[in-house]
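Thread: quick sanity check before group meeting

JM: Hey all, I'm pulling together slides for Thursday and realized we never actually wrote out the predicted structure for the chain we discussed last week. Dropping the sequence here so it's in one place. If anyone has concerns about the input, flag it before I start.
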Amino acid sequence: QLPFQARELTKHDLRCYEPMFAMYLDIQKGLSIEDLPSDEVRGRWKSFVGKWNRGILAEGWYDPATLRKARRAAEEVEEDGNHPRDRDGARQYSAAAANAPRNEEEPDEEEEEDDDDDDDEYGPNLPSTHPRPGPSSGPTIPTTQDLQLRKESAIEDSMSTRKTTQKEHRADVHAHRSARRDLEDEVAPRAEPGTHERRLEKRRDNAAANRSFAETRRGGSPIDAAPEEELMGSGENDLQAIKRTQEKEERKKNEREIKREEILRARAAEREERVQRFRQKEDETIGWLKALAKQRFG
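JM (edit): ok, ran it. Output follows.
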């Protein structure tokens, strides 16, 4: 049982718990939900839901007051247009600037020189020639975790779509049967239940159902027979059918090759990253040994 008698969450509760989830990312991860892409938000929400349902989060997150506080803060942000912490920082900055001493009569010469330099320079700054440390910006190779997350998302979407389609089909069948039953009652109304006429109708219906079942059993399969062109082959559309089959097989093969290439690229990227870490560690060790040898032996 979860603390504060909280209920378990699902992936569909993101819209309801989004303010508290944004607070969780801000406090625990140091991230802003507005800066994250939608797929990363869904992945982090899935992890949060798993921790929530297992009850491994702090008890404060299960408190309904936390959710109300997060919603109230989100409403204030929407009304004011900026974050409360930004407003507090702006007030503190304005107060400090107002209390700071200023000499308005005699401005510094350095400030005047800086103003002159600012007037002479215009346009964007030139890019620096020194390379920046760290990974370069741009598209990266997806990792195995990204591929697994995409696969799980596709499976969940297909399952939800299948369930929705089944529900819609059942509802359509039920509506069709009820409409047909109402139409039959209007055309030929049935007798009152419990009467002799109703029992005769049931007997006739059962006899007709048994007769149709016996005919289908004796007459063969109730499914329509396949056309002779598909069984024997007409000779006209055989080439097109073969081409369609080959295209389908090639399409399946290409999809499998694409998935295999993605997995291989992800593994190669991970292997290269591990090799770089090992080389960096080895370089640090060799540098330390060289410094130690130089210190001892000169």
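AS: nice. The CA atoms of residues 86 and 108 lie 32 Å apart. Residues 3-98 form one domain.
JM: adding both to the slides.
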